[in-house]
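Hi L., both proteins are below.
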Amino acid sequence: LLAYIFKYCYEVLRFLASPIPPDQIPSIDKVRSTAVSKGQDPAQAMRAAIATMLACARDCETDGLLLWEALDDVYMMRWSNSSMRISGGIMELFGAQGEGEEDAHKKWTDGLEKYWLNVKSHAARVADETARDSDDPIDEFQRTMPNKLEWLSRRLLFSEFHPFVKELPIINNFMFSDIQHLFYNESKKNLNLERIIIARASHDGLEPQICCWVEPFIRLTLAQRGQKQWRNALEGLQQYVLERLRLRPEAVGKVFALFVHRRRTFLRTMQVTYNSLNFPEKLPKDTDLLNKDFVDRASDIIDEYRRQLGGRGRDGNSSHIRPPPSGAIDMTTGLSADQKTMLRGLVAMLRVTNFQWEKKSNLKGVSQVIKALGPSIMSASLNEELLTTKDS
């Protein structure tokens, strides 16, 4: 969730730090009035203007033209102070949209309106004090800032992100600590959402549990050393959504928005259930899932399955599921109950994952696969119990 919010915040900062030429960043009113005078669709004209602005911002980054120092010197401290004025009293209301939260939501939106008024008024004063006939890049940068903030405050930019992140103020030194308190605070006042969507599953640290429910091989790729297919859980989830489910990027935002909007009114029961369950972080020391005979057997089964697929990958009847192993691949004879469960769960993951395991060099060491994915497979019943919690 924090990675998703951070990605949005960076897109905002890149846009604000870009020296976009004045003729490419008109005011909203000018775009609309020009479109009307020409008999064009104002909405279509605004989409075209947005595409031009954001493309220019990306080009500025590629060419190394972003004015980070000017952004920091002229604006960031003022924006941080404006944010602190509202965050101290209402930051905990971010995302309040659940049943019975109408008053909390209004308090948040009213505070945010005051914040944007303060931010835009400051930018307008800076622009008024800037020489109008100067072609100095910093002067042009300051003259265009009011239009940038108008587009941003109206939440018209970055359509690929879910609307809930656009309710945030511009990123500042204090914002992430405020957001973390919403979800990771141990006090009775706030839900400790970490216990619901976060699991310790690799030496690299924390990863979102909810992401692993969608893309199970995240745990493996984070545990691998060297070059990784995914560097973090969010990247794995996004690739799964885009490539295997063939959905738009907004689907990832909807997953996180669900937790943001429901953390007060619906997740407390889910948290109590999670606390009562014993989710394993590692396989038990006395497990028979890591003995050499079973690891070799699992490796042979994966090789046979790889040969069966022959590079075909997905099932023709489904956009994201590979065909099951043929009956000729024996996954039961001579195996314990836990070993059978492990193989069934592993094959289920192999069928749906976006991890490129068909390429043998990507799947080095089946024992590592079992260590990384085994805890999740062997606790499948606990996940099912959590997912069927009332109101979750």
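That was the first. Here is the second:
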Amino acid sequence: MAEADQLKVFDSSHVSPPPGSVPTTSLHLTFFDLPWFSFPYIQRLFFYQFPYPTLDFMETCLPLLKHSLSLSLQHFFPLAANIMCPPPPGRPYILYKDGDFATFMVVESAADFNHVIANYPRDVKLLQPFAPKLPMVAPVAEDGTRVLPIVAFQVTVFPNAGICIGSNFCHVCGDGNTFMQFMRCWTSVYRAGGDLTCLEKSLPLWNKDVIEAPDGTEPFLLKMYWNCVSSYSENCGLPHVLAADKVRATFVLGRAHVERLKHLVIAQCESEQLHVSTFVVTCALIWVSLIKTQESVIKNLSDDDHDDDDDKFYYFLFPLDCRNRKEFAILGTYFGNCLKPSITEMKKSELIGENGFVLAAKAIGNKVKEMEKSGMRGVENWIPTLIERIRTGRRIAVAGSPKLHVYDASFGWGRPSKVELVHIESGEAISLAEYRDEQGGIEVGLALNKNQMDEFVAIFEQSLKLP
């Protein structure tokens, strides 16, 4: 694998919006943005079939790829900007100045493309070379303001096999919806040969004033931000240390599997008004399978009875997008973060019990309904509660969503063969995306130690045999 990790650099440059196309602009950060300072950047990889030599890509694709990126950044200029982080009591903000840029690299890899995009378990380090790097230390201006870049791009060419468009995107600037708005813009402009008329109906909404900070929320968030930013000089961009035997895999639930799981929940809860969706049954199945995996591995490794924590609560964390909802006056094209944290809690004894899947589906479905109806109620407790649950270590979080339609990001080389979220490797998170090959299905990505993955595969496959 060491040889395959070696990348040959063909291009290293900066891509800016066309000169003079965007005035100097600053955007304040909302209470939806501020909590993300303490979370990792979003590393998303789009893999495409491209059975041609590297030289063909450099001559026929690269010029238009960079030109269309420049034109797209004109309309999504915060991606070329920086996040300015002044010391206390200053407030952070996004600042764009003419000439600001996104870093852009083109490299060649000798790795086996089909192995890289496979669903079966592979070493987590396999994907890391294809995610672009950002500065290890945040630059500091004369007044003590730390300057954080927002995005970097890397194109990796696998000669005569494929291409990877890799991105490293600061979550403070925006969520997955925001980034996919940009990707749809970039791919559309590329397919149109640089013609911007294709964007007339899909331009982003920049007005941050549509999100008002509820009373009492900002002091806590700003204090958390100041504590986080004060350590950036030591920690910005440092890679997470991963276990040597950690692997990642993608698990697919086809439409038939999903429908069977839905019917199982409905059949056992006929008298209840439930929210039973593809998201709900998928998350319930994965959550229960992961907890059963942990329990089984602990029992196998321990000769003595392990600490009995059946009455302890375990937590499933997932975001609710507030765009296009009647309780929030926020359009679907809003640029920024617009995610409401949702937390489902259950005792371990319930999750690993005989009816664990159905109980988990009910709990997650009820939480979705509750969060959709509650609007901004209790907003002052959202982040403190989230932090408290994360610190227990007994949590699993969701990254991505099938509603992002990541497989629609086509540059004209065909739909992506695979889309991966690299950053789930560094925390207890799973990734979700729509199933590429079948409408109504779903893909789940996760990373575990090798022995845990073996156990999870066995439990997951057995779960799909439910009547």
